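Support request from a user on the community tier.

User writes: "When I paste my structure tokens into the form, the page sometimes reloads and wipes my input. The last time it worked, I copied everything first. Here is what I submitted, just in case something in the input itself triggers the reload:"
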């Protein structure tokens, strides 16, 4: 099986994830750590899709990252767009927090969602000299009108689907019917962020991954606790945030078992500094996260004979 991997970094500002969505949280100070780590991954053969949000592109730190990428290994990095609506103009009111509902771009009025993506696209162009063709909605908030906006603004690839995940309990989108399979809608190529069900029972694992509807039925009938306990059925994102190398390998193998051949490994750029995201309380956690990322990328290339590609390489226009 020919397998491909996208390494997607959510390049964004630093903020306390438990303190709501405030327009004033726009600091980017972790670029000192991001620049060398990206360089290290590129040296190992990786290509990086850097999904940048407005405060990141607008900050001195973010601009340093962009300039550094342009001087060293421009072919190995794609500048993509990532929308955090609470810190992305227009309509930002100082000191005003947005609600959970408004934190999902797809819940905004279609005109406002369009305008925010448009302003972000312009900002990325102004700073990097290139128009992004790949989009990632903040909080995976992709909705009914998003593909229209993306098409109108020249986008070709979307990374916003989060396979098997349901955010409707916090008024977000419900992707529980989606697997990681790539698909095209309205000329936009969708590459879901890889997730997988894992279980001690290979049979249950395969069934859950192949038929998301089956999993929903299990949940609805209140059997999830039993399944959770006996079969240890749990959902994992392909990310070094909260997963070790063995888990990332298990996710990959579980998905390969159902024919999946494209994978998205992702993490948030502030996770490279201790205390900046919930995944990395200590410096040791950061080291572990970086090490897991390095070893997974090595494993993917050496053991699976896989290729690391950019999101834009998967666009329809690339055949
Ligand atoms: Zn984000």
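"...and here is what came back when it finally went through:"
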């Amino acid at each position: 099986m020919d397998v491909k991997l996208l390494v997607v970094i959510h390049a964004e500002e630093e903020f306390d994830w438990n303190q709501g969505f405030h327009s004033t949280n726009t600091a980017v100070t972790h670029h000192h750590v991001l620049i060398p780590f990206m360089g290290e991954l590129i040296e190992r053969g990786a290509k990086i899709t850097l999904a940048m949000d407005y405060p990141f592109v607008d900050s001195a730190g973010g601009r340093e990252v962009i300039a550094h990428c342009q001087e060293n290994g421009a072919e190995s990095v794609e500048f993509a767009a990532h929308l955090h609506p609470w810190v992305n103009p227009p309509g930002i009111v100082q000191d005003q927090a947005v609600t959970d509902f408004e934190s999902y771009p797809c819940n905004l009025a279609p005109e406002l969602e369009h305008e925010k993506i448009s302003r972000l696209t312009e900002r990325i162009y102004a700073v990097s000299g290139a128009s992004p063709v790949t989009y990632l909605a903040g909080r995976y908030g992709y909705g009914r009108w998003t593909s229209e906006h993306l098409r109108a603004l020249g986008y070709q690839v979307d990374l916003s689907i989060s396979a098997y995940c349901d955010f409707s309990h916090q008024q977000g989108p419900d992707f529980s019917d989606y697997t990681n399979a790539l698909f095209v809608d309205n000329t936009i190529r969708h590459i879901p962020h890889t997730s997988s069900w894992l279980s001690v029972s290979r049979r249950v694992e395969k069934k859950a991954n192949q038929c998301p509807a089956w999993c929903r039925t299990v949940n609805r009938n209140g059997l999830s606790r039993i399944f959770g306990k006996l079969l240890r059925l749990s959902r994992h994102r392909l990310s070094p945030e909260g997963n070790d190398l063995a888990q990332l390998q298990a996710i990959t193998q579980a998905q390969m078992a159902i024919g999946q051949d494209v994978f998205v490994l992702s993490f948030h750029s502030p996770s490279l500094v201790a205390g900046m995201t919930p995944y990395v309380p200590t410096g040791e956690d950061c080291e572990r996260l970086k090490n897991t990322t390095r070893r997974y990328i090595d494993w993917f290339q050496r053991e699976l004979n896989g290729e690391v590609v950019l999101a834009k390489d998967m666009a329809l226009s690339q055949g």
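Agent notes: The reload is a front-end session timeout and is unrelated to the input. Residues 283-302 form the longest helix (20 residues). The chain is about 35% helix and 15% strand. Escalated to web team.
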